[in-house]
Amino acid sequence: MSPMSEEYWFNQLKINGAGYPDRVDDIKRILVNARGYVFEKPVNEHVIVLFSGGMDSTVLVDMVLKQWKCKVILLYIRRDARNQVYEEEAVDFFSAYYVKKYPGQVIETVKLDIQIPCRVNREYLDKNRQHVMGLPMRNAIMWANAVTQAVYLCEKYNTTIRTVLVGSLRDDSDSPESGYLSVLSMCLHACVCLGTWNFQVNAPLMDNSFVVGGMFKKDLVKYCKQEGIPIEKTRSCFLEKRDPCGDCLACKKRAAAFAEAK
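^ thats the sequence. predicted structure below, dont judge the formating
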């Protein structure tokens, strides 16, 4: 089968995205009926934050520590990505940075070695599909592993860990890979598979948890400047180069955010 054009995949997004808000509302309705809420702010609780060393998750960690006074377990997944060395450098830098900035609140940095996506048969992936849709199930696999760690680590810390937080933004709202429907779907999936309805997966930079209407990437640039967070230490570039390439999608989104934030 010959590769489909990017236009084809964008059209598929449009077709399958019809009714997106209704599907979000459907899952919200299930959660509210089952437990009375969609998301409860985990103030003063132990939480897991999926951490990549990028700007999005770096700001998320700061806001969770500062505003909710959480006990945070940072989770980094070594996915065998091209930029892993430099991504992990950013993770290590900010892990130490937040340990110092918020004494007693950063409990641990957990690192998992999981190849995502699995390379078997990857040569058959339609590259145009990847450009539009992302890598198949990439985020869902990471989120599911974060849920697993939440269950395991309850015993280690003799507490309830019911919350996994991810760094999706308003820019990602209708993304099939990172959007709000994907996040809520994982939340529902976790509740069903764990047999408990108090578990929550959420993207607080995307909803109204911190800022009404959520936050865009340009807002993260402003936040870092206001809070004195060394944004230059975050890692966005996808490539295996120490200096960002400036041409990959991540670099372009980052440059656009800086330009918008002025």
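The two ends are 46 Å apart (CA to CA).
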